[in-house]
Acid stress-induced BolA-like protein IbaG/YrbA
Amino acid sequence: MNAEQLQQLISAGLPCDHLTVEGDGRHWYATIVSPAFEGLRAIARHQRVYATLGSRMQTDEVHALSMKTFTPAEWAVQVQG
């Protein structure tokens, strides 16, 4: 699995306004901005992302995924600093 493949999996299952994925092939870091996160707490947002990966988390295809999740409004504040 490479960063582009992981990015495609996430964006295929979740509408993303912004998505970056970095990592070393086993340990990944993602920044995900999605309107689907509106009204959800952090754990529910992460569960939505994990759902897009399906069994890849259980089969160790994606060993670790650290993520920051934002709604579009939260991201706008984050970017403007």
About this structure: The two ends are 33 Å apart (CA to CA). The longest strand covers residues 27-33. The mean pLDDT is 92. Helices lie at 3-13, 42-53, 72-80.
